[in-house]
């Protein structure tokens, strides 16, 4: 965050607030954070910084909503969201990490992974898409080595795990069933995963055990309150990147040219129907 507004990372010792955050207070706080994100964007472009943010968590943990809040006021040419589909047969034959590497940020970019290489530690392991040996090799060898190389290359790597309770996950997934706007978020795989809560818990525990390193630590966010987790993660992210406000010239709109001999054409434009 800009020097005069620097926020130190929270150690997580404070008790989570229980009072519901009003929409007005949420929008006010989010507006301030969006202003800071735009400053971060300008700094990334000016300095050629490289930032990679990984979001992981169970289905319904709030990853998508958090990413939307993080990116909705920034340029998609600077803040890129990567959400890869299931691997192709060709990709399955590659070294596991290979398909993720081309998406890492170049200078002047912030890349956000909506799920990442940690699929091998979570869904692939729990649902049987990889062997136990492959998953443990990933946790013990591949992930730490690749992440050390990522950090050594100058990329700022931030990893967030969104922690949601059993009860809140159930409530959110049931809401997806009933809400026609959200049915696309609930796949057959999500339903199978839902029944394996403790398998995912064990997989999460192993992931932290092997990949919560000093050079690429996991930050855990309580995501039972959607509004608060969005604000908390954005605030934490800003606190962990040493950006500064980039000076810019005052913007003044130039005068428009005079009409001259231009006249609006008498053209039968195909206007859409005004339904609202």
Walkthrough of the structure:
This protein is an alpha/beta fold and 276 residues long. It has one domain: P-loop containing nucleotide triphosphate hydrolases (Rossmann fold), CATH 3.40.50.300. Helices cover 41% and strands 12% of the residues. It has 9 helices and 5 strands, in the order αβαβαβααβαααβα. The protein has helices at 23-47, 63-71, 89-92, 123-126, 132-152, 166-178, 188-194, 197-211, 226-239, and strands at 50-57, 79-82, 109-114, 155-163, 218-222. It has a 5-stranded parallel β-sheet with strand order 2-3-1-4-5, with helices on both faces. α3 links the parallel β2 and β3 (109-114). α2 crosses α9 (226-239). The protein is globular, with a radius of gyration of 22 Å.
Quick summary:
The chain is of the alpha/beta class and 276 residues long. The protein contains 9 helices and 5 strands.
Secondary-structure map:
Elements: H1 23-47, E1 50-57, H2 63-71, E2 79-82, H3 89-92, E3 109-114, H4 123-126, H5 132-152, E4 155-163, H6 166-178, H7 188-194, H8 197-211, E5 218-222, H9 226-239
Parallel strand pairs: 1-3, 1-4, 2-3, 4-5
Helix pairs in contact: 1-9, 2-9, 5-8
The residue ranges in which pLDDT falls below 50 over 5 or more consecutive positions are 1-15
CATH topology: Rossmann fold
CATH superfamily: P-loop containing nucleotide triphosphate hydrolases
Helix-strand string: HEHEHEHHEHHHEH
Number of helices: 9
* Global Rg: 22 Å
What is the beta-strand fraction? 5-15%
Give the helix level as a range of percent. Answer: 40-55%
Second rung of CATH, namely the architecture: 3-Layer(aba) Sandwich
The main pleated sheet reads as: 5 strands, parallel
Q: Count up the domains.
A: 1
Largest sheet strand order: 2-3-1-4-5
Describe the global form. globular
Number of strands: 5
């Amino acid at each position: 965050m800009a020097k005069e507004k620097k926020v130190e990372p929270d150690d997580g010792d404070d008790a989570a607030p229980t009072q519901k955050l009003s929409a007005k207070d949420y929008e006010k706080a989010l507006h301030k954070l969006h202003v800071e994100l735009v400053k971060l964007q300008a700094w990334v472009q000016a300095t050629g910084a490289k930032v990679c943010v990984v979001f992981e968590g169970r289905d319904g943990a709030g990853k998508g909503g958090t990413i939307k809040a993080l990116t909705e006021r920034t340029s998609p040419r600077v803040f890129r969201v990567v959400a890869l589909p299931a691997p192709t047969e060709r990709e399955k034959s590659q070294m596991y990490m290979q398909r993720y590497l081309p998406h890492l940020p170049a200078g002047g970019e912030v890349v956000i992974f909506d799920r990442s290489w940690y699929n091998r530690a979570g869904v692939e392991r729990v649902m049987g898409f990889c062997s136990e040996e492959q998953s443990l090799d990933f946790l013990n060898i591949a992930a730490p080595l690749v992440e050390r190389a990522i950090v050594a290359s100058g990329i700022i790597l931030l990893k967030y795990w969104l922690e949601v309770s059993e009860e809140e996950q159930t409530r959110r997934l049931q809401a997806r069933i009933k809400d026609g706007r959200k049915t696309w978020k609930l796949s057959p795989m999500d339903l199978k995963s839902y029944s394996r809560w403790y398998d995912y818990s064990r997989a999460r525990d192993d992931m932290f055990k092997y990949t919560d390193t000093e050079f690429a630590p996991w930050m855990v966010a309580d995501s039972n309150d959607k509004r608060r987790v969005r604000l908390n993660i954005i605030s934490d992210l800003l606190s962990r990147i040493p950006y500064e406000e980039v000076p810019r010239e005052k913007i003044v709109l130039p005068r428009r040219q005079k009409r001259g001999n231009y006249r609006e054409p008498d053209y039968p434009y195909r206007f859409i129907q005004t339904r609202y």
